[in-house]
Amino acid sequence: MTKSALITGITGQDGAYLAKLLLDKGYKVHGLVARRSSDSRWRLREMGVEGDIVYLDGDMADACSVQRAVIKSAPDEVYNLAAQSFVAASWDQPVTTGIVDGLGVTHLLEAIRQFSPHTRFYQASTSEMFGLIQAERQDENTPFYPRSPYGVAKLYGHWITVNYRESFNLHASSGILFNHESPLRGIEFVTRKVTDAAARIKQGKQQELRLGNIDAKRDWGFAGDYVEAMWLMLQQDKADDFVVATGVTTTVREMCQIAFEHVGLDYRDFVKIDPAFFRPAEVDVLLGNPAKAQRLLGWKPKTDLQTLIRMMMDADMKRVAKE
């Protein structure tokens, strides 16, 4: 029988890659989409799946619309990818971030508990919950210490998922995903900010790139690899929480070097440090230990950072040339 899946946040980077993955596996895919005046489906068009999805109007802040989406889609699997996911913006919109990234998870879990308790649930948790790291490499047992409203809100979403799993026996898993990027990443995120700027500078459309803490270290992977881990979690007999990461850390500085070198430039000639881009509370390093995901899910990342950045650079070079 055809499986049914509901994806919240389907118009985002992860939603587009996950929708393509599930459609390729024969799922009927529903997407929860909030009303927006701007074009929010461009990523789905890029993946060639825009016309293959059943769209449902709804908003994570509105419990009634979330309930309707669950009832209408009758899902075997729900993937909660909806979030205010830009860390810097969470300082400007802490309440909105708390409602969408925290309370919204409860709306969805409660709808599943009441109307579809057989449904398997995936919660998109984040490495930002580790924040001020309490261990050199972070795994499922590392204590959390979030350093932004985004991290705090996501931690609520994570723990409410654990509570519903343990209290109501729901098949509810959380993927603690470290940074994952792609050509579909929003321009406000540092990886796309770098690749877009390198492309524009190469083509004479920009003179410099202003960044904050370029010595911050992150564990970067490819979003297309990471959505496979999401799906694998919901195929397990037992729900659980999993760190999804490459296990390799790289500085923003090194990432800039890879991007600019790909187009024959030296990043040091163009990157300027701007104190305005530093966080109120910095997260200096995040490095995941994906051993559990490798052992129990059989998942490993396929794409290294150099390949990923070059993929993004090629896409941005083509896009900027057409502007």
UniProtKB/TrEMBL annotation:
<dbReference type="GO" id="GO:0008446">
    <property type="term" value="F:GDP-mannose 4,6-dehydratase activity"/>
</dbReference>
<dbReference type="InterPro" id="IPR036291">
    <property type="entry name" value="NAD(P)-bd_dom_sf"/>
</dbReference>
<keyword id="KW-0521">NADP</keyword>
<dbReference type="InterPro" id="IPR006368">
    <property type="entry name" value="GDP_Man_deHydtase"/>
</dbReference>
<feature type="domain" description="NAD(P)-binding">
    <location>
        <begin position="6"/>
        <end position="312"/>
    </location>
</feature>
<comment type="similarity">
    <text>Belongs to the NAD(P)-dependent epimerase/dehydratase family. GDP-mannose 4,6-dehydratase subfamily.</text>
</comment>
<dbReference type="GO" id="GO:0042351">
    <property type="term" value="P:'de novo' GDP-L-fucose biosynthetic process"/>
</dbReference>
<dbReference type="Pfam" id="PF16363">
    <property type="entry name" value="GDP_Man_Dehyd"/>
</dbReference>
<keyword id="KW-0456">Lyase</keyword>
<dbReference type="GO" id="GO:0070401">
    <property type="term" value="F:NADP+ binding"/>
</dbReference>
<dbReference type="InterPro" id="IPR016040">
    <property type="entry name" value="NAD(P)-bd_dom"/>
</dbReference>
<protein>
    <recommendedName>
        <fullName>GDP-mannose 4,6-dehydratase</fullName>
        <ecNumber>4.2.1.47</ecNumber>
    </recommendedName>
</protein>
<comment type="function">
    <text>Catalyzes the conversion of GDP-D-mannose to GDP-4-dehydro-6-deoxy-D-mannose.</text>
</comment>
